[in-house]
Amino acid sequence: MLNKLKLSLATAMVLLSCTAAFAQKTKTVEAGGTSVALSSDFVTALQSLGVTPGTVEPTKLRNGKALFPINGGAIDLKTLKGEIIHSGGLTLTAGSTQVRLQAFIIDTTGSSPVLTGLVVLNGGLLARVPLFDLNLSRSSIRLDGDDLRVRGVGLTLDKVAAAALNQIFAVSAFKAGFPIGTASVTAEAD
């Protein structure tokens, strides 16, 4: 009986230590920012279509870089699976048509990392769609304590976003895989 009790206690201790180790990998993302250096191809393409880019507050657009505040999410610091939630967004305006791409979420939980966003057309919410596919092959990832720093993430236009933008602006210029820019993420986790 005493041996069974010792075995049960030992098993419980192992399970508790494993649970604590797994629980500490996933951190809540509380703040930070993502900056995107917009590709000159993307900026030139918008200009040739007569589309003017702008921002949704509190996003800032300076010297070809868009700065998006991070306001939440969760990330597993060992596997980098998680979601990073942003405030603000971008506007694309041509004539009386305005598209707002906002409330971005970097999602690395699926088979391919993607950035989704809400699409708002002339003030009416359409849907949350995949906007940009993320290429991590040339990125550098560094952990500073519980802070995550990712540099060199390639953003390309997702096929769903390309089809939606072509339909909205009545063009055929938006293509899946079109280079949007290069992102850097600094997320503060707790």
Provide structural commentary.
Helices cover 22% and strands 54% of the residues. The longest helix has 22 residues, at 2-23. It is α+β, with helices and mostly antiparallel strands. It has an 8-stranded antiparallel β-barrel with strand order 1-4-5-7-8-9-11-12. The radius of gyration is 21 Å and the shape is globular. The chain has 3 helices and 12 strands, in the order H-E-H-E-E-E-E-E-E-E-E-E-E-H-E.
Separation, N- and C-terminal Cα atoms: 44 Å
Report the oligomer: single chain
Count of individual helical segments: 3
Task: Outline the low-pLDDT stretches.
Answer: 1-23
Features:
190 residues, alpha+beta, 3 helices, 22% helix, 54% strand
Layout of secondary structure:
Layout: H1 2-23, E1 26-38, H2 40-48, E2 52-56, E3 60-62, E4 65-76, E5 82-86, E6 89-94, E7 97-107, E8 114-121, E9 124-135, E10 140-144, E11 147-157, H3 159-169, E12 179-189
Antiparallel strand pairs: 1-4, 1-12, 2-6, 3-4, 4-5, 5-7, 6-7, 7-8, 8-9, 9-11, 10-11, 11-12
In short:
The chain is of the alpha+beta class and 190 residues long. It is built from 3 helices and 12 strands; from the N terminus they run αβαββββββββββαβ.
